[in-house]
């Protein structure tokens, strides 16, 4: 992080703070590490990999169902805040729910996902945090974008995956231009880019960012 702060063009890094579907343990993600990189000038984008859609084809450990969508969203939202607090990420931070791709032609599945997202968002708002959402323009992000104009408790911030190589959150924005304005957009525009700065090589995903991050320090 020190090498990249000194010589890379990047100013922020995403960190996976929790969720039963998080891909691996994060033993080095501690409040001490957060404090150190924050003091060095890095901004952090907290991701929570919560329950995944019931119609998704994956090996997710935790899935949403119609019966438990609201209760699971509420409990996962509370857990996300607790984990953020333990890392020193204070109220008014934005936490991002990671919802992977699924079949958005399945109306029952979409309904369960939206109920879960609403409950997760409400749990964050009740505790003073911003509710962000990470999803794909072809499915998960499209579902919340379609719902947002008329559905309460939709995400405050949208982080959308669209691998078009376009380093912008405005040019090529895939949804209505009136959605998530006022510095509430992130755009993942390239994945698996192997880069080296200051002698340290890492494979990263690139994002254009104009959105809230974690408040630390």
UniProtKB/TrEMBL annotation:
InterPro entries: GH, Rv2525c-like_Glyco_Hydro-like. Residues 2-209 form the Rv2525c-like glycoside hydrolase-like domain. Gene3D superfamilies: Glycosidases. It comes from the Bacteria. It holds the Pfam family Rv2525c_GlyHyd-like. This is DUF1906 domain-containing protein. It comes from Actinacidiphila epipremni.
